[in-house]
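Hi there. Long-time user, first ticket. I'm pasting a complex I've been working with (about 353 residues overall). I'd like to know whether the download I got is complete or cut off, because the file seemed smaller than I expected. Thanks.
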Amino acid sequence: MNQTTHPHHKKRPLRKPPFVVIPAFLLLWLIGVATGEPARVLEQAVQVCLSCIGIG
Amino acid sequence: MERVRKWVQVIIGFLTNSSWSFPFTKTIYQGPLKVICAPGLNCYSCPAATTSCPLGSIQQLLGGLRLNLENGQHYFGLSVLGAIGVLGGMFGRMICGWACPFGFIQELLHKIPSKKFGIPRMLSYGKYLLLILFVVVLPLVLVDEFGTGHPWFCKFVCPAGTLEAGLPMLFLQPNLRNTLGLLFLNKFVILILFMTWAVFSSRPFCRTACPLGAFYALFSKVRLIKLHLDEAKCTNCKACHHVCPMGVKFNESPNDPECITCLACMNKACKFDAISLEIGGIPLAVPDRGMSPANKP
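Hi, the file is complete. Here it is re-exported in full:
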């Protein structure tokens, strides 16, 4: 018996859900980018949001 | 491994807050990098922030949705949702443990010597309520006379915004101090409460009130990188219960939505190699406790 074989070397089946979820959200991101959302995000993020920091 | 995690937290903290010209400009960074969403909770009105906060961005986009639709613009927040969704699908709440500056601050506060207390599990549902109500529903539904919604979570709750942006901006722009009122007092009290609580309990904000953590928690079962429990090796000794900073009982709930994959259970607790890190089902790392095989039971 090979006593040096590490238990973590046992083959586990590949989990499929991440390979569905990640492309799905990537698609959402692409749709958002295609509609020009990042420009709007940038427009907001470069201004000091007074209400965000509890002042305005 | 704990040291590696600390370094990753520091490096990501600096990368997302790497604009250090604010002492001279007296304002926030306004460059193009801000189009990128920070992975963790990092206020984009922080003077050093070079990225945008996903929660702040999504609330602003939802708040302006009606007005934008009237103008023929279709900003539903899909780019932000997509970006944090991809991160969630890959890492889940590992982001909280490795890449969130506010989580890191709470960890540092918890190192202050004091009597330590747990947090009732029931309180962890509060963050889901905040996500649904304060991040999505209220900004979308309650609009002012101009048809614009407000970033409710940022405005009334977010202690990270008060700490990383509110206080520094008050220091940099003294004229803002004249506008202080109940709104700021409310947020300041929330900040003090969570920072004090963090001394006595581990990561209280992450566990009870962070909507971003709640979002990433939705990926606990389907995320690419996660911890794996080998039930054949687990002896139910419960050693993993005692080291978890999130109060997870890993042997009872290996896909727990609270798990931030800090690897403490794998590296510090389990002596039976029952816990391992995997990527999509493929083992990625084995326990690292600095123990030679001869020392293992």
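A couple of notes from our side: The beta strands of chain B are 225-229, 275-279, 282-285. The longest strand of chain B covers residues 225-229.
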